[in-house]
Amino acid sequence: MKTLKKSGDLLSMDDAYIWHPYSPAPSSIAPHLVKSVKGTRLQLDDGCELIDGMSSWWAVIHGYNHPVLNQALKDQLDKMAHVMFGGLTHEPAILLAEKLADITPPGLSRVFFCDSGSVAVEVAIKIALQYWLSLGRDRKKHLLTIRQGYHGDTFAAMSVCDPVNGMHHLFSEVIMPQFFAAAPECRDDAAWDGHDIEEIKNILAAHSDEIAALILEPIVQGAGGMRFYCPEFLRQVRALCDEYDLLLIADEIATGFGRTGKLFACEHAGVSPDILCVGKAITGGYMSFAATLTSEKISEVISTRGLKMLMHGPTYMANPLACSVALASIGLLESYPWEQRIAEIEALLEHGLSPCRFLEGVKDVRVLGAIGVIETHEPVQVQKIQDRVMKQGVWLRPFGHLIYTMPPYIASDSEIEQITHAMCTALAE
Predict the structure, then answer these.
(1) Considering 64, 115, 131, 150, which one is annotated as catalytic?
(2) Looking at residue 331, what is its pLDDT?
(3) What's residue 3's pLDDT?
(4) Any idea what the CATH number is for the domain that residue 245 is in?
(5) Which entry of 244, 262, 280, 409 is annotated as an active-site residue?
(6) Do 237 and 149 have their domain in common?
(7) Are 394 and 426 in contact (CB under 8 A)?
(8) Is 280 a catalytic site residue?
(9) Domain range spanning residue 46?
(10) Among 51, 47, 7, residue whose Cα is nearest residue 30
(11) Residue 150 appears among annotated catalytic residues
């Protein structure tokens, strides 16, 4: 039997064998060894305890080690951990599909389960392309999107990420060319400027016969810059998709399940997409899982014409453990007044981050729902900022020009205040 490794040995092994995300190998910034997690807290191996202001990349909305979610996994494990979804089905997948069709924007009645957010986007793009191919309109094979967006790290997803300021410009010569329009500048409907939609109108007027779908992150652009834009832009986009006969894909992987103050960000504009991608918080951060939803009309066309089937099928599609914990996570969200709590978190973030507006080097401070962002004029020094907030008992992961937080919904008022204080203090130093 192997003996347990000491922390120094484990970190040396990490350095020797693991390739961390968006890092060289070995990592240029040594990772911190997590010993255990509970509630909003990370317990590091060196005894340090940190409030997780990132919800583990925005997914752990109910906190760690939640008894309801733990029990859902334990109960399902006694029945089956996994079974193939080709030719077979199971109760957790059926109940979850029904629940997702019920809570998402109207008209989305078909659910395709995926492994991750990037794969959900791949499936959405494949659905859009296959829809038009099934109708015999094979010129419609490109996508339109807005700059500053991020949709994942797989190849089709990379093709609709920002081509200049995104993370994938290295692959620009080998990914599918797409159409890009300027991202909207208006932050709320009161400031709506029709100029924000003009480039999309011009592209569609010239190329709509080549465009299968318009894909965007509704209201909040996440990893591409944590930008917020006004609902009117989304309404205009929906109308243009209808006018020019293309599908609207909403990537709600980051915004779904309450993060912006609405269950889904599309609700801010009162629109329904033709295809919807969800992930991240769908399992409360317990397992990698996602789903792509579409309308009965689209699924019927693909199912009755051409190949008469959607050409996709992940091995771990509709994993029973993931479906069960997703059902439990959605049920947990519905069990308390989460909208009120998100509004309270929004007010706390606004109050706590407002002093940063007057700090030298700060370009913008913005808050929406349980999202708080400080944007700087110059790129942040990630290691320095991270060290400073950790000294104040907070875990954050800055990037680019951004120091931001997306805390768990269960974070207390005092924990939110500790997070915002750490952010402001780290910048002030």
Answers:
(1) 150
(2) 98
(3) 54
(4) 3.40.640.10
(5) 280
(6) yes
(7) no
(8) yes
(9) 32-65+337-428
(10) 7
(11) yes
**Same domain, residue pair 95 and 196:** yes
Q: Is residue 14 in a domain? A: no
Specify whether 22 is catalytic: yes
Catalytic residue among 22, 46, 78, 308: 22
218/238 Cα distance (integer angstroms): 11
Q: How far apart are CA 178 and CA 171, in angstroms?
A: 13
We report the CATH number of the domain holding residue 361 as: 3.90.1150.10
Phi, psi for 183 (deg, rounded to 5): -70, 150
Q: Residue 169's pLDDT is what? A: 76
Same domain, 186 and 299: yes
Cβ–Cβ under 8 Å, residues 92 and 76: yes
Number of domains comprising the chain: 2
Distance CA 112, CA 364 (A): 39
Same domain, 56 and 81: no
Task: Look at residue 1 in the predicted model and tell me its pLDDT.
Answer: 41
Instruction: Read off φ and ψ for residue 277, nearest 5 degrees.
Output: -110, 130
Q: Is 251 a catalytic residue?
A: yes
- The pTM of this model reads 0.96
Instruction: With CA atoms as reference, report the closest residue to 268 among 283, 255, 281, 278.
Output: 255
In a domain, 164, yes or no: yes
Question: Exactly one of 162, 251, 262, 286 is catalytic; which is it?
Answer: 251
Confidence (pLDDT) at 4: 61
pLDDT profile of the chain (429 residues), mean per 10: 72 94 89 97 97 98 98 98 97 98 98 97 98 97 97 95 80 91 94 95 98 98 95 98 98 98 98 98 98 98 95 95 98 98 98 96 97 97 95 96 98 98 94
Is the same domain home to 364 and 273? Answer: no
Domain presence at residue 232: yes
In a domain, 24, yes or no: no
Using the Cα atoms of residue 51, residue 54, residue 60 and residue 61 in order, give the sign of their dihedral: positive
